[in-house]
Specification:
The structure is a homodimer. Chain A is α+β, with helices and mostly antiparallel strands. Chain A has 2 domains: about 290 residues, Zn peptidases (Aminopeptidase), CATH 3.40.630.10; about 120 residues, 2-Layer Sandwich (Alpha-Beta Plaits), CATH 3.30.70. In chain A, about 35% of the residues lie in helices and about 20% in strands. In chain A, strands 1, 2, 3, 6, 7, 8, 15, 16 and 17 form a 9-stranded mixed beta sheet that branches. In chain A, helix 1 crosses helix 4 and helix 1 runs antiparallel to helix 15. The first copy, chain A, starts with a helix and ends in a 5-residue tail after the last helix. The relative contact order of chain A is 0.20. Chains A and B meet through strand 9, strand 10, helix 7, helix 8 and helix 10 of A and strand 9, strand 10, helix 7, helix 8 and helix 10 of B. Strand 11 of chain A pairs antiparallel with strand 11 of chain B.
């Protein structure tokens, strides 16, 4: 039996232990976006430090003005292979509305579903389950062979779901310690439950919280309705004007740098036989709402968007309150592709708002960290080797895919550390990663660990 | 010393006791719009029953499917005078945002301000302080003369701030018990702190809560942004289209039944020398936002409006959550004037929404009780007598004014009980009645009691 086969066997034999460890991490309510959970984020970081130490890593918690980073290093069995940097995040999304969960979000459990067993918990797929596939792969290599197959550094952050305010300064300050030959990122999904996937295009992001203030205090709409400007009305106008009737974003210059797809990619994507209709129907929709003239897959992978992620103003609770509010707030995000410039788009958005601001209203902005889109060069050896390793594990050809989401760290890894990233993940479309009842397929977790075992084996045979 | 003078003297002498009783009522957090305060509403009703009994009323709490009604009766000193029905409401508005209060909303106190002493508490002006001016006036008549000057019935409800769902059925079922010769309503304001005011025009109201549903669950805006319709975007469009650039409401037929003001009324209002600029500046605004071509006073008293009183969708809490929400909700109210038809306007609003609803969105409605505007006939004896009594108390001519707010009960008193209403109130523009730090001027309370003493004296000299 080869070394690789023995490590894979150890993965299968140790699955229960791996699940027990994952459940320990999932039980920590490390919601980064809400200051009430600061202690939980620290607890998750400490948990990871301890766990990485148990695999032989030299692991350290690094405190930041926000949530801590975890950095760990371990040499490989020889000095020959490449130095790999694995990135993941231990923070999770908020859980509201809690009443829509049918389990407790931080009491992980295995559930039988028609599609197979799943791990049910907030963070199961995004990103705790995913990052632990890599840690467990390292553990099995260590256990069977006594060492890792190549030198590995690990970098976990705890602010991915809250705009990563500490990420860029931390990467800049710790550039030397973090730099390796290639980054591995496990925060993406598979094409479907049988098709392993390397994500090679990621949408970028510009996010802004805007607050419109009208009157200096909340007013009675009977006493002031008419002459007093209502900031909700102003906000509605600003937001309604962001799209035209064809679903296009109206900001001047918004589509600058948006590439049309090559015929080759169009063909490759068409050959995936994506059922856009079924994709929409699974979430209760029937018609693509994006730009006319593009398939559903193209709208997600290759076209930029604008969405209002949150809006609030006045009294929206139980009953009715005839208030004319002083303030109204919206959180707006733009998904970027190709060479779209986050700074230019932010500027155009500010201009769009200022152009629509009546004399008695003011606006304040709170920016979420922005990032350009990422497009990988897929013709390098590591991409080919990872594709081969994944295809062997899943007994199905691994594909290169786009990804509608934004993983800003990939851009920072390129710009600050000058490294390419290999994005391999095992999430599925129905994981509900930002919604109630998030899950991660048990198969994703199990074969995810096995996939990393194989990828590490393949990559370690490269000269660094 | 006349009987009237002795009663007025008793008001002055008993002011501390009256305040103590008012504070007892203000300490009850009877927020009708939130089911969490149901017990408090009942407590306030019971408090009023006990207090009315202490004045010699035959008082009863009537339970309803919502909050209780309080009805009380007491004969006058002779059978000659008119039978009066006094209406008020003991429920109050919610207090959020609580952090903007500088006192506890349900711990009433007297505060010294540059404009004089005020009673600070939720409900101080709307409507507990106002209704107690009448109860205390009755108490003083009773105390000094041993009886009321004329037959009085009292009708308090506890759902005025939450759409009065039980009001119409209760009034219809208890028509005989509630019917009198004239209704007195104390839920309005004064022109300014020295000018007593009888409100003779009230705007009506149509209120609707609309919920737009797009996807069947909350989605990740990276994975679905583009093809998935965002219900906030749909809601923004619907609401933005309600006004044109001149501040006019765009619903077809909306202005049907809106009268142009007579030259006489225009002149009367102009003679009030209302400073629209100062009115707006006091709440941080500088330009009237309503229909062009009308003064601020006309926009409030004589023009219909549309306001969004609340909006919510997605994640608007601390931080950023890239959710594409399943639902978005708004609470919209229209203030009506003249002969505008609430049913026709509701219908036009539904049509406006349906016309803008894309194929994958649905809408649900929850109506707030609607009411036509009210315009009083001011040439009857009671109006003249009340105007005279008020002018004497305040040593300044009482005026007939419009009122931007809606008091639907006045319409129901007319349509169900076939009675006219005399609207006298002592609120001031800066009472912040639906906002943090609500107050009621101590002078309003004190001279309010004295005003009712005089009005009761004047009206009791009419034949019924």
């Amino acid at each position: 039996m080869s070394e690789l086969e023995r490590v894979l066997e150890a993965v299968d034999a140790g699955l229960d232990g791996a699940l027990e460890r994952l459940f320990g991490l999932l039980a920590i309510d490390s919601i980064s976006t809400d200051p009430a959970y600061t202690a939980s984020c620290r607890k998750a970081a400490d948990w990871l430090v301890d766990d990485l130490k148990s695999v032989g890593f030299d692991a350290t918690r690094h405190d930041t003005p926000g949530h801590p980073m975890v950095v760990a290093h371990q040499d490989g069995s020889s000095a020959e292979g490449p130095h790999l940097l694995f990135y993941g995040h231990y923070d999770v999304q908020p859980v509201d509305p809690l009443e829509l969960w049918h389990t407790q979000p931080f009491e992980p459990l295995i559930e039988d579903t028609p599609a197979g067993k799943v791990i049910r918990a907030r963070g199961a797929a995004d990103d705790k389950g995913q990052l632990m596939t890599f840690v467990e792969a390292c553990r099995c290599w260590k256990q069977v062979t006594g060492s890792l197959p190549t030198k590995i550094s690990i970098f976990f952050e705890g602010e991915e779901e809250s705009g990563s305010p500490s990420l860029i300064p931390f990467m800049e300050e710790n550039k030397t310690e973090l730099t390796a030959d290639l980054a591995l990122v496990c925060d993406t999904g598979m094409w479907d439950s049988n098709t392993p996937t390397i994500s090679t295009m990621l949408r970028g992001m510009v996010g802004e919280e805007i607050t419109i203030t009208g009157p200096s205090l909340d007013l009675h709409s009977g006493m002031y309705g008419g002459p007093a400007m209502n900031p909700i009305r102003v906000l509605n106008r600003i937001l309604a004007d962001l799209h035209d009737d064809d679903g296009k974003v109206t900001l001047p210059g918004f589509y600058d740098g948006v590439p049309e797809l090559s015929d080759e990619i169009k063909q490759q994507w068409a050959s995936l036989n994506h059922d856009g209709q079924a994709f929409l129907e699974s979430v209760g929709l029937s018609e693509p709402a994006g730009e006319k003239g593009y398939t559903v897959l193209e709208q997600i992978w290759a076209r930029p968007t604008c969405d209002v992620n949150g809006i609030a103003g006045g009294y929206a609770g139980e009953g009715f309150k005839t208030v004319l509010p002083s303030k109204a707030v919206a959180k707006v995000s733009f998904r970027l592709v190709g060479e779209q410039d986050p700074v230019a788009i932010q500027k155009a958005f500010y201009q769009h708002i200022n152009d629509r601001l009546p004399v008695d209203c003011t606006v304040s902005f709170k920016a979420k960290d922005g990032a350009k889109a990422t497009v990988m060069q897929v013709d390098s050896a590591p991409f080919k080797q990872a594709q081969q390793a994944l295809s062997e594990e899943w007994e199905n050809d691994a594909i290169y895919a786009g990804c509608g989401g934004s993983i800003p760290v990939v851009g920072h890894i390129k710009s600050i550390l000058d490294m390419d990233s290999l994005l391999v993940g095992f999430g599925l479309d129905d994981d509900a990663i930002h919604s109630p009842n998030e899950k991660y397929a048990l198969k994703s977790f199990h074969k995810g660990i096995r996939s990393w075992v194989r990828i590490l084996d393949a990559l370690s045979k490269n000269d660094s």
